[in-house]
Design goal:
3-stranded antiparallel β-sheet; alpha+beta; 26% helix
């Protein structure tokens, strides 16, 4: 079986809008949505999910504008990394084993003109 590789893509923070402006902390990230792609070099599969975050700790709060892509990836990896890789392995294996269409000689059409 080919060795699969994995990559986090499309990482998005979801922010509590605080429409009334009543909260002390602003732009609090309440969840992170992330997609992981898996590939065996020929086939590609993907899976995505949302990680809900606990309420922020005011003493350790990082402002939205100071968050990084690495922070988002760490959140998704800690919550879903192993599960996503296992799921992608199963998806890729299923695609490799899926029956393929193969036309009969009488069904093959000659290229037109």
């Amino acid at each position: 079986m080919p060795k699969n590789t994995y990559e986090w893509t499309e990482l998005y923070p979801e922010v509590d809008p605080d429409p009334d402006g009543e909260r002390e902390l602003k732009d609090v990230v309440v969840s992170v949505v992330g997609r992981m792609n898996g590939s065996d070099g020929k086939l590609v599969a993907s899976i995505d999910g949302r990680v809900m975050l606990p309420p922020p700790d005011p003493d350790n709060f990082i402002a939205h504008e100071n968050l990084t892509e690495e922070w988002l990836q760490e959140i998704c990896e800690a919550a879903n990394g192993e599960f996503f890789r296992e799921a992608l392995d199963r998806q890729l294996e299923a695609v490799r084993k899926r029956p393929r269409q193969k036309l009969l000689p009488c069904q093959v059409q000659e290229p037109s003109g």
